[in-house]
Design brief:
Number of strands: 31
Strand content: over 45%
Shape: globular
Number of helices: 0
Distance between the termini: 23 Å
Strand order of the largest sheet: 1-2-3-4
């Protein structure tokens, strides 16, 4: 067993090789169903009992607070985002986009692109954006997906914004693109390292993470991003937080970092597997997913 996750003190799941899961009921661990041994790429939820995760070989999982529901879509999934438990999107290989309405998943944007889509983000009730390889950017507005001119051929791997007129997409060779609601333009990142994830607490407090432990920050001044001191050289794949003083980044060899508004520090994950996605129901209920079906949950006392 190499990872642990729980919804309460008497309902904790421990995950091991081959997709094995055991449940702690407050007295002991008992074997339950096999979940997955596939790599998980992203995690998002509307609450601690409504959590989605997607990954390799089309793995799509949902936790309802009592059991995991697992299905296979047939194509690799890389990005995941939702506005609510009845408005969720995932994206993946071949330009695939799927939307969940609370009852079923349906295909969207068919034929718009064949490029793999890696990141997705949106404004609830407004627009949704997806980014992918070779500078691909798609936008859904008014129910229809359409391509946007990114003016770059670099692979784009993550997207986040504070509004539909203030978005950032990050990717290969330190690429950062900014969208003002009209057009995408470049932003100096200060690094040539690949950037894999981006998240912000506000328009003036945005973090991007990437290869070699790279962390860069935008404070809303000018257009340039600034490097942050990172306590690791391990590549970072995901970043998420609840505020500018409570941010988490995850990456290779079980790396989990925390930023308290002053400095980034290491946390103990209990695994050496690659961790690729992080999301929290609250600042004290945080989920991390990664290679080999790894699922972690952190609830600081």
């Amino acid at each position: 067993l190499n990872a642990v996750w729980g919804s309460s003190d008497t309902n904790v799941l421990a995950v091991g090789g081959g997709g094995v899961i055991q449940r702690w009921n407050g007295a002991n661990f008992t074997p339950t169903l096999l979940v997955t041994a596939d790599d998980l790429a992203a995690v998002w939820g509307s609450s601690g009992s409504d959590v989605f995760s997607v990954g390799a070989f089309g793995t799509r999982m949902h936790w309802d607070g009592a059991a995991w529901d697992v299905e296979n879509t047939g194509f690799d999934l890389f990005g995941l985002w939702g506005a609510s438990g009845t408005d969720v999107y995932h994206v993946g290989f071949g330009g695939a986009i799927r939307h969940y309405n609370g009852a079923s998943w349906t295909a969207e944007g068919i034929g718009v692109t064949t490029e793999p889509l890696v990141g997705v983000w949106g404004v609830p009730g407004a627009e949704v954006f997806a980014v992918g390889l070779n500078g691909t950017i798609l936008r859904k507005g008014g129910g229809t997906w359409e391509p946007l001119a990114s003016l770059t051929t670099q692979n784009l791997l993550g997207v986040w914004g504070s509004s539909v007129t203030n978005l950032y997409a990050v990717g290969a060779n330190g690429t950062i693109r900014h969208y003002d609601g009209v057009a995408w333009s470049g932003r100096p990142s200060g690094t040539s390292n690949q950037l894999n994830g981006v998240w912000g607490s506000s328009p003036t407090d945005v973090f991007a993470v990437g290869a070699g432990g790279t962390i860069v920050h935008y404070d809303g001044t000018g257009i340039s991003w600034s490097p942050m001191t990172s306590p690791t050289v391990q590549s970072l794949w995901g970043v998420w937080g609840t505020s500018g003083s409570n941010v988490y980044a995850v990456g290779n060899t079980g790396t989990i970092l925390h930023y308290d508004g002053v400095a980034w520090t290491r946390m103990t994950s209990g695994t050496t597997r690659i961790l690729s996605g992080v999301w929290g129901a609250t600042g004290t209920d945080i989920f991390v997913v990664g290679a080999g079906g790894t699922i972690l949950r952190y609830r600081p006392i």
